[in-house]
Every structure is written in structure tokens, then in C-alpha cells.
């Protein structure tokens, strides 16, 4: 697993707590996607399981380390939803708990890692809660989540909360430049679109994904003068619709910032003419309504199984067309 330079400080802080005997048996790490929490918790897991630790580092040579590197350590458990499912049910939790109550097969620590803790069903969360309330000796639960509010309050209260913040923007831009030198404005845009998370920004900057976003921006730029918002349907109606709607909502929010004289704070630094066009064609009230409607649409697409994606998108785009037709908003903003 890759390691990232901005993880050095949080890693030393966390390992230091466990080395001093102050580490919590249940750690909840809150991070935006693309900040490297997976690498951080994997490294912590290796240190906890290592039998011959070298200070704040795992030795990489003991039997436990070799098993971890091979990906088959019997006392290291990763709990994720089955392929094709968007929730983690009670049965895997029960199986792991049953395993934990037997002795550690390597005679050391036992670690359970939940990379997406917010996907626990209520029954699964309750089953886990009982174990966290009565912790087993030398057993550690490492939970990661992007949205702590989706976790049961009682489950959160049994964990030690740790926020893995995004790195400083200047440092992230330096790292992105080392990965693949390119247009500085594009790198800044990608970084800001994902809350400053460098790994997510690097992913967006890959040619195929960047082209998809560019196609959306071009389609929107062409549709606005004609008030033909239905022309956006082909570029939105894809399996990754949630991400594409994230890009769209970011543009709309940027237009609201533009109207308020905050052009320096827009996320889409590479799309300022498009943002200005949005700001000139829609009032701030209309923009706010459209953003709220798209966020509701996105939530339905993500959370409702079997929803008709094309129909839902079509309905929203037609509503946008009607708003453009009725608003008559053409005031230019001198910002």
C-alpha cells in the first residue's frame, strides 16, 4: 500500500499514544475520501501486530509482519460490504466477534479494520457496540468513515475520534506536481473540488476522468444560451452519476460565490467563463433552488435501490429549463 508524506505526523501521534499505553481499543478516523486514511490505518495495524517493533515502525521481518505483507494474517480482519452491496450486515460482524473470543493465533494483538464504518446496518452496529462496551484484551478496532453523522451516536461514543485533516494546499499542490506535472490551474481545481484531498485530486486529473468533467462543462456551456438543459442528459446519465452531479453542483455554488464578489474562492478555477455565465443567467435565489434540487436528486440516486436514473435526471433537467424560461434573469454582475 502506498504511503503519503502528509501521513507522517498523524502516524507518529497515533503510534505514540499506543506505545505509551494510552491508545484506545476503538479508534474512529474521520477523513475526506482521498486523504489516505486507508494507508494510515494499515500502517497502524502493522505496528500493532508486529512482534518486534522498531520504535514507531514495524520491523517488517517477524513472522507477523511477513503474514501482513502477504495479506493473510489470521489475526487481522478487514470488514467490508460484499461486492455489489452498499451496506455491511450483521453476519460478518458476528463471525469476526466469534473469532476474536478465541486466542490470537500468532500470540499477539488482534486487529479489526472497518474501512467504511458508516455502511454498517443498524443490527451490525448494535452487534459491534456490545463488543466495544466490553473490550477484549489486546484487541483493537480501527474504524474509518467519511460521514460520522451516519454512525449510531452510541457507537461513536465508544470510540476515540480522530480527524485526519486535508494537508496544506501548497504542500498538496507540490505533491501533485511531483506525481504528474501539468497545468497549475487544473491541479488547483481538482484539489479544491475534493476538499483538498490530494489522492482524490490525482484521480480526477487522470486523462479519462478529467475529460468526462470537461465534457460536462462544455455541454453546460452550450446548453445555457439555448436553455436546452435536457442536452446535459447524455453526460450525466452514467453509473458514476453521483460524482458528475458533484461537479455540477460545485459549478452552481461557484456561480453563487461569483455573484457575491467572492470569485477568488470558487472551486472550479479553470471554468471561470462558465461560472460567470451561470451567475449572469440565474438569480441567487434560483441558483440556490437548483442546487437544493440537484442535491436531493443525488441523494435519491445514491440511496434508493432500483430508482430510474434516466427518468429522475430528465425530470430535474426539465425543471431547470422551466426555471430558465420563467426567470428572465439577465442582469450582469460587475465583480
Automatic annotation (TrEMBL):
The reply on keyword Cell inner membrane is: no
EC class of this enzyme? transferase
Task: Please give a single GO biological process term from the UniProt record.
Answer: DNA-templated DNA replication
TM regions (residue ranges): none
Cellular component aspect of the GO annotation = DNA polymerase III complex
Enzyme Commission identifier(s): 2.7.7.7
* Keywords of the record: DNA replication, DNA-directed DNA polymerase, Nucleotidyltransferase, Transferase
* InterPro entries linked to this entry: DNA_pol3_clamp-load_cplx_C, DNA_pol_HolB, DNA_pol_III_delta_C, DNA_Rep/Repair_Clamp_Loader, HolB_lid-gammaproteobact, P-loop_NTPase
Enumerate the spans annotated as DNA polymerase III subunit delta' AAA+ ATPase lid domain: 167-206
**Any Pfam family matching the protein:** DNA_pol3_delta2
GO MF terms, alphabetically ordered: 3'-5' exonuclease activity; DNA binding; DNA-directed DNA polymerase activity
Name all DNA polymerase III delta subunit C-terminal domain ranges: 208-322
Q: Does the keyword Transferase apply?
A: yes
Q: Which reaction does it catalyse?
A: DNA(n) + a 2'-deoxyribonucleoside 5'-triphosphate = DNA(n+1) + diphosphate
| Matching NCBIfam families | holB (TIGR00678), PRK07993.1 (NF005941)
PANTHER family, alphabetically? DNA POLYMERASE III SUBUNIT DELTA, REPLICATION FACTOR C / DNA POLYMERASE III GAMMA-TAU SUBUNIT
Indicate what this protein is called per its UniProt record: DNA polymerase III subunit delta'
Q: Which organism is it from?
A: Serratia oryzae
